[in-house]
């Protein structure tokens, strides 16, 4: 797979985020604590929580969130089929826009999957 959608989005946002983080470090520190608390394993495992965040990112049409949670979901062991099914739920909840952002999210997920596992996603 030659797509670099997810990586390109993360790289584009990295310097912008860094600049804002330097301007409001306490806010970012608080957000990081919330992020870590919300995504830690509890009754739901971290993979499931990342897939939920991934699906919400599609619903919110947030390219940066889709790329970040695609990457994290793969690191937690999510498969392309699990990502596709999570995206499918966003179609139900969001209609047409989810078909566009879902395709972007799936490209980011598959890119992260290949980078992490070295395997091509099943077609």
UniProtKB/TrEMBL annotation:
Pfam family, one: CMD
Domain of life: Bacteria
SUPFAM superfamilies: AhpD-like
Domain Carboxymuconolactone decarboxylase-like: 25-106
InterPro entries named in the record: AhpD-like, AhpD_core, CMD-like
NCBIfam families according to UniProt: ahpD_dom
PANTHER family: ALKYL HYDROPEROXIDE REDUCTASE AHPD, BLR3452 PROTEIN
Name listed for the protein in its UniProt record: Carboxymuconolactone decarboxylase family protein
Lineage: Bacteria, Bacillati, Actinomycetota, Actinomycetes, Kitasatosporales
